[in-house]
Amino acid sequence: MVKITDVARHAGVSPSTVSYALSGKRPISEETRRRIEASILQLGYSPHAGARALASSRSNVLALVIPLRAGIHVPVVMQFAVSVVTSARQYDHDVLLLTQEEGEAGLRRVADTALVDALIVMDLQLHDARLPLLRALDRPSVLIGFPQEPEGLTCIDLDFRAAGELCVEHLAGLGHRVIGLVGSPPEVYVRETGFAQRVVQGFTAAADRNGLSSSVHPCESTPAAARQVAEQLLRERPALTGVVVHNEPILEPLIDAFERLGLRVPRDLSVTAICPDELAERARVPVTSIAIPAAEVGAGAVDLLMKKLGGGTAPEVTLLSPRLTVRASTMPRP
Fold first, then answer.
1. pTM score, whole prediction
2. pLDDT per residue over 21-35, tens digit each?
3. For a tag on the chain, would you pick the N or C end, based on fewer CB atoms within 10 A?
4. Dihedral class, residue 255 (left if φ above 0, else alpha if ψ from -120 to 50, else beta)
């Protein structure tokens, strides 16, 4: 690893002069500066992040807080993380990924150091215990997700309530009168995770508005649980003809379970989902779905954070409208 002393030796100056050239704290001659810059380029020297932070009061590092709790579908979460990292690099920032479930203590531990300039926080709960601290921190933050009361915060996400409504409106428009929502694992609802709660709110509101008979069924993310939910739905609602799925890992197992029970998709049962496009497209029966806009949300979160870091103002609420893509899994009610 190239050190500052190597640069100094190569440029024929003292290490302190190299430090001054990097920090700008003291004037040096233009000729000396050019010589130091040439040595840095030739040797491939990269100033230590801590030194850069001391020199500029900035670390050029963002914290991405994603507690990997039970019930989270990691592949989808990682799509958000990749988007945040890629977008941050466009602003010459790196990303520190924090996955431990540490609550307020974890946020405070990071914020009280010079490790990061700002924070992006995911997996928000409606009554999240971290919110008072996020409002009080001297570092800017952006939340991917919405608590019950977003005042004083900067939040961005898909409008999951509207997504739940849109799935129901699609089924109602096709004439379906008895529908079910197969949702996230039970622990996600127990935590009052914002996005899952809002899908239920939208689903229920749209079903009531259209006079549909509906029910909500949390489901563990396993094929066995998908089979149990399919059996329960048909036992309790034998006239069922429409299902909304908000649980990515069980989408295909659930379709398989219904077909083993004698319901063909879409002839007997129409299925819609809220999931990544690639998952819906590659299903054995391509699924009518609302995409999870991970790339758009991640990039938007970074843009909002950079606006705040630059001293600008950012809107408290940024909701992305859901877009439904019709595929082979839905058709008019028989």
1. 0.81
2. 776 656 778 888 888
3. N
4. alpha
In this prediction, residue 18 has a pLDDT band, given cuts at 50, 70 and 90, of confident
Q: How many Cβ atoms from other residues are within 10 Å of residue 94's Cβ?
A: 13
- Tens digits of per-residue pLDDT, 244-274? 999 999 999 999 999 999 999 999 999 999 9
CA distance 201 to 184: 14
Tokens (6 digits) for 69: 């709790």
Of 241, 246, 164, 239, whose CA–CA distance to 209 is shortest?
Answer: 164
Total residues belonging to the chain: 334
Alpha-carbon separation of residue 135 from 111, 125, 129, 140, 254 (angstroms): 12, 15, 11, 9, 41
